[in-house]
Specification:
Largest sheet: none
Radius of gyration: 40 Å
Strand content: under 5%
Helix content: over 70%
Number of helices: 5
Oligomer: single chain
Shape: elongated
């Protein structure tokens, strides 16, 4: 006879529980931080060993050569874009400084050109 709806739901629930427990076990086994905390000396020995193997393999040199090769054509495009941006920045700064300097010069000219204010003459007292 066919499975009833209740049987199917029970099977689904059991499968979910098994999957949840399996995932929790995997997470616990794959928790590197906890493994290092539990076993610090073997973790250090493993890190030193991997470092020695990688340093002797020349992987860093290969990666640097690959990166340099990939960016060879981009260097001129990036350089031209940077030149344009720097030129725009320098032009903007130069214009702002020129405006500020002109304002200061106008202020100084105005101060020099204005007549000196003398206090009004005090009329003599008629006694």
């Amino acid at each position: 006879m066919g499975a009833t709806t209740a049987d199917v739901r029970r099977d689904i629930e059991l499968t979910r529980e098994r999957m949840s427990s399996t995932i929790a076990e995997l997470e616990q086994k794959l928790n590197v931080v906890q493994a290092v905390r539990d076993h610090p000396w073997p973790a250090i020995a493993l890190a030193v060993g991997v470092g020695l193997v990688l340093s002797g393999s020349g992987a860093d040199v290969k990666a640097a050569e690959a990166a340099a090769g990939a960016t060879r054509g981009a260097r001129s495009r990036v350089g031209a874009a940077l030149d344009t941006m720097v030129a725009a920045l320098v032009t903007g700064v130069q214009q702002a400084m020129e405006e500020r300097l002109n304002d200061w010069v106008d202020d100084v000219k105005g101060a020099i050109a204005s007549p000196w204010r003398r206090p009004p003459a005090i009329p003599p007292r008629a006694d």
